[in-house]
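Human: Respectfully, please carefully check these tokens:
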Amino acid sequence: EKEKKLFNAITEIRDDLIEQAQDAELKSARPKRRIWGAIAACAILVMGLGGIMLWQSVFPFLDKAGSDGNTGSSGSGHTEGSRTFMSYAGPVFPLTLAEAGSEITASRHIAYDFSLAGEDSLHVWGAQVQDSYVLSNRSEQERTVSILYPFAGSFSEMKKQQPTIKVDDVAVRPTLYPGSYSGGFTGVYGTDDPDGSLNLRQLDSWEGYKVLLEDGSYQRNAFSPYPELNQTVTVYEFSDYQAPLEEYRAATQAISFTIDPAKTTILQYGFEGGEIGDDGFRRYSYFVPDGVSMRSENHMLIVLGDDIGDYDLQGYKNGAVERGNELEGVSATITRYETVLSDVVDRLIDEYFSQYGEGGMPAGVSKEMYLGSLAEFLYQHGVLSNNIADRYEYGALMDVISEVNVLGRVFYLEFPVTIPAGGHVDVTADLHKTPSFDFFCSGSENVGLQGYEMVTRLGSNLHFEALTAEVTNTQHIEIVRQNFGFDLLNGVRKVSLDPAIEHYYLDIRAVEQNE
């Protein structure tokens, strides 16, 4: 549904308007001025919907290693080859204790069920995973321990990705704790970006998760209080838009002013273009809402620190904010007021998901959790950071809200378990696992493969006395690469694993019905 909304938003702009905007040259009357956005109406709508994520998910092969093509097709699947997937789903992590206790030991059994229906004549897409544990208490006293179950995911996919937890076959309701964005930043493809901070770089290997989790700091941070957005801010809110939209469908309004960057920080919502000058000049522009396309109805400047003072408003025929392209009859009412930053961000989160989400917040995600994660992101990478990533220097809150929703992170489910003296309890996590894969348009020889992984001890303080794995409902798959030791041709579907091996992988291909 999200992809459908994005497609409709792009395609409902007339071709002549797109061509008109593309032909317009972006000029700057001031030196050393950085310009973003405001090139074509369709491009602006994509950016407003977190389109940079769409670009990176469709074209990640532009800057990633490819496959060497050695895929093989045997039932045992021992063929070597590149396992760098363009869309990486992350491994299944082991259960751990909130506080280590040597008297608690564990055994683990992980089962991959390949009965999930797929599309395009394929019987399988994704796997249902049952990650089962027997926790034993070797002491002479009853122990109540806090269990943590980590999983890789994102807010946007929470409904599908969050595991269901059972203790002795009884469902429990764990508390969810989100970690911070697990990836980093990289330069724009085809350019030389010296600080490597323009594009998002999500983790693309289990080794990346190893670096992230092995010293324990990521987990500790996930359970730390969120930073507060308690600053008093000045808000300039736009409303009552007017423009000759019948003739100029891409009519644009820009607001410009000059600040002292050492004393003033700007956050903004709903603006699709802008300029930043080294002399403190700022200009932000937006396409006037037309009530038809998915343009934002809300445009807001949020000022931290000294106020902006006088400002100029100017209308333009399209997104090319330049001399000679001015347009009369473009206006808006601007309301200035003071509030607390958390209050206005809380409201904008609601507005964003009302317009671009599926009727509200992602399933299972509380407003407090989302606002806290967004605040954490602003302090780590945004305009509140001492080391701001270049992509956020324009203070675009719409982009930040969108990206906090879709960016990868590790979540933790916490729940208590009481284990009798000398006894044990069974803990089971049932989860849907989307595979790692390569995009069809890439031409990679890994196209059609589905990659699954598990790690045996990463992030866990438990000692695993036994470790086994199993695959079920395998009649519609073939194993291409693995290190588990399954042999479908000879009926070996359950194996014992070596807990000393950190990482196990299984790459499969779904076969067509007539095969």
User: Anything to note?
Assistant: The CA atoms of residues 183 and 208 lie 8 Å apart.
